[in-house]
Design a protein that fits this description.
alpha+beta, 3 helices, 11 strands, 26% helix, elongated
Length: 172
């Protein structure tokens, strides 16, 4: 697959087309000449010793002493371990290896991972507690003064709008 790119070096000159070849480790999905996604190659499986060696070599920002060490991803806000970090690349055994965050849709790299301090751990614990609270159904006051459980189908936006409109119908 070859892409053509038009360059405009000088507005008085004609177009020049330059070929761009896709990287061999990218899978491109197309629909009617529109690029939808670029999926990097899938992670490779390494032994624990090899993975620790790769982490030590490729993470030039922090030292790794074991795969159980934790890092805080500044992009997705998750705490990850060396075991979870994905290693990709190495096409045909001689391509460059890359490290990436294991969180879905997170494109962070070692530069984006910091050692989790007490402050960061407390923040993550608060976020987890807030997520738990949001998942627990809370009592909802209905328009007729009664109470109901939040998971009974009355907490949706459509139900709330109906309740809101109901107050205006009674007054008119």
């Amino acid at each position: 697959m070859v892409f053509l790119v038009r360059r405009f070096p000088d507005p008085d000159k004609g177009f020049t087309d330059t070929r761009i070849h896709p990287a061999p480790d990218c899978a491109i999905t197309w629909r009617e000449d529109i690029c939808l996604t670029v999926a990097l190659s899938s992670p490779i499986t390494l032994s624990e010793i090899d993975k620790l060696d790769v982490l030590c070599r490729l993470d030039q920002f922090r030292q790794w002493h074991s795969l159980d060490e934790k890092r805080f991803c500044l992009v997705c806000g998750k705490i990850i371990t060396g075991r979870q970090i994905q290693v990709a690349g190495g096409t045909r055994g001689n391509g460059p290896l890359r490290l990436s965050c294991p969180t879905e849709r997170c494109n962070s790299i070692p530069m984006d991972w910091v050692l989790p301090t007490d402050e960061i751990l407390a923040k993550v614990e608060r976020m987890v507690a807030e997520e738990r609270e949001a998942a627990i159904p809370s009592p909802v006051t209905r328009g007729n003064g009664g109470h109901g459980c939040g998971d009974s189908g009355h907490s949706g936006i459509a139900s709330r709008l109906r309740e809101f409109a109901f107050h205006f119908k009674r007054r008119s």
